[in-house]
Write a structure and sequence with these properties.
This protein is mainly alpha-helical. The chain is built from three helices and no strands.
Length: 185
């Protein structure tokens, strides 16, 4: 009987220990989530404060400008403010996108797979382009080679024709000269 009671106590103690570990793991997860949320909120707050400051500076600058330079001075102030706000928005969106893309292991793996597919696509496109270029260059070389071979063949035929004609002309001239000599003698 005693062993049954002690066995029940041991089981209850082990359940309590595993529940404690589960709570601790949950606290760690909640803590890391709250840390991320706190950091994101701080970034948003900084952005809002920077925006307010920039707007206030722009208002002060626009009030101070007047007279001849009014419109140009206002543009000169508002353009950098607009650029700064656009850059801030892009940084914030990039940070929040990065946080959302890599917030869990599954999302990080999915993003890595996307990068891998994009790299494979770029590689395949480059290989296809290289293949096309190689085929085009080989075709051009074959065409040029054929053209040169035809030209060489034509030149050889012309050379042979000139050689034959020149020998025929030389023989005819020799015969004429001989006939003339015979008529004179």
């Amino acid at each position: 009987m005693r062993s049954a009671i002690s066995q029940r106590r041991g089981t209850a103690a082990s359940r309590a220990g595993s529940a404690g570990r589960a709570r601790k793991a949950t606290k760690t997860t909640v803590k890391s989530r709250s840390t991320r949320a706190r950091r994101a909120k701080a970034a948003r707050t900084r952005a809002v404060n920077q925006t307010r400051t920039a707007v206030a500076q722009a208002e002060i600058a626009s009030r101070d400008t007047g007279g001849v330079f009014g419109e140009y001075a206002e543009r000169a102030v508002l353009i950098p403010v607009g650029v700064a706000l656009t850059a801030r928005d892009r940084v914030l969106s990039g940070v929040s996108d990065t946080l959302s893309n890599y917030s869990s292991g599954a999302r990080a793996q999915a993003q890595l797979r996307r990068f891998e597919r994009r790299g494979a696509t770029a590689r395949n496109r480059l290989e296809r382009e290289v293949r096309k270029t190689r085929v085009r260059v080989e075709r051009q070389l074959r065409q040029r080679r054929r053209k040169i071979e035809r030209s060489v063949g034509d030149l050889e035929q012309r050379r042979d024709a000139v050689a034959k004609n020149s020998s025929d002309l030389a023989n005819e001239l020799a015969n004429r000269v001989q006939d003339r000599i015979l008529t004179l003698v």
